[in-house]
Design brief:
The complex is a heterodimer of chains A (about 120) and B (about 110). Chain A is mainly β and about 120 residues long. In chain A, about 0% of the residues lie in helices and about 55% in strands. In chain A, a hairpin with a 5-residue loop joins strand 5 and strand 6 (about 55-60). Chain A is globular, with a radius of gyration of 13 Å. Helix content of chain B is about 0%, strand content about 55%. Classes of the chains: A mainly beta (about 120), B mainly beta (about 110).
């Protein structure tokens, strides 16, 4: 089956620093990747849609200058949380949609737990 | 706006019982729906999906029912096992058909 990995699985950083999270599709090519954020006991909230080779589309209320997304290849998207603050502490999950299948199905990564001190 | 919600935040069942998890959606134009299972500290795991041209789809021990008239989606798990304990989310296409919108989630607890 289609596998999506994330790195790191968990990260602790100091307030004001930047953190980069990687999302990789391991056995398929993904023209579209998605980034979600999930706070404790809540649902997944879509942050942005990332298309390979173009700018990401951000959901309303998500600051594009704070959450930098790069999708430079068909197997890798990165999310950089710039100048992180404690309120950015959350579970960040990416997903990927396989290229050229016309399928809606998304394959999810295992998530990255970010804790900002 | 778009929203997908679940009727009950928690559901407790005995091992071997059948479980039914419900979801109401608001976007009548949605043409694709998915159920995901999420265990603590992990990403969502695909369970089963259904397109709007169907009203029922069966998988292994799971069945998804879609009632477009009342915009209702349900997941039935047969012979529920302790390993089924998790949070279950329904999701639907957003209006543009480009992304998924998740419901609030139901926590299923299975006791032996």
């Amino acid at each position: 089956g289609a596998v999506v990995s994330q790195h790191p699985s968990r990260v602790i950083c100091k307030s004001g620093t930047s953190v980069k999270i990687e999302c990789r599709s391991l056995d398929f090519q993904a023209t579209t990747m998605f980034w979600y954020r999930q706070f404790p006991k809540q649902s997944l909230m879509l942050m942005a849609t990332s298309n390979e080779g173009s700018k990401a589309t951000y959901e309303q209320g998500v600051e594009k200058d704070k959450f930098l997304i790069n999708h430079a290849s068909l197997t890798l998207s990165t999310l950089t949380v710039t100048s992180a603050h404690p309120e950015d502490s959350s579970f960040y999950i990416c997903s990927a949609r396989e290229a050229d299948t016309g399928d809606h199905e998304q394959f999810f990564g295992p998530g990255t737990r970010l804790t900002v001190l | 706006g778009e929203s997908v919600g679940l009727h009950l935040p928690t559901l407790s069942v005995q091992e071997g019982d059948n479980s039914i998890i419900n979801c109401a959606y608001s976007n009548s134009a949605s043409d694709y729906f998915i159920w995901y299972k999420q265990e603590s500290g992990k990403g969502p795991q695909f369970i089963i999906d259904i397109r709007s041209n169907m009203d029922k789809r069966q998988g292994q021990r799971v069945t998804v029912l879609l009632n477009k008239t009342v915009k209702h989606l349900s997941l039935q798990i047969a012979a529920t096992q302790p390993g089924d304990s998790a949070v279950y989310f329904c999701a639907e296409n957003n209006q543009a058909g480009t992304a998924l919108i998740f419901g609030k989630g139901t926590t299923l607890s299975v006791s032996s």
